[in-house]
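Reopening this one. Same input as before:
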Amino acid sequence: MIVIKCIKQVETELNTINSELERIKNNKLNNTDYKAELLIEKQKLEEILDKYKLNLYELPDIESRLYRKLVYEGKNVTKAVDEIAEENYLNSKKPTDPSYIFRKYWKKIKKNL
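Same output, byte for byte:
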């Protein structure tokens, strides 16, 4: 869950920078130093975000797998939960019941979406 929270925080910061860059563009401001600083910060945050995403794909826990399927693979909750249950069954891992996975893990990540 920590990686998911970090991803959300970096995405929020990136959105703020993008909004500020858009404001500069729309207002035709000539503050090139400030714009350059924002672009450098944006690049750093994008690199951090990429590292967090890679870490998220390496984590085997159900919360991380569910988050990946929902956010990065664009699946709906039912499909994502069913896939995790199927993967667990094929790999002889617990839990394999989709309703249990939904009840226990969906609540945990729903607030981070």
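So the earlier flakiness isn't reproducible anymore. For the record, Residues 1 and 41 are 25 Å apart (CA to CA).
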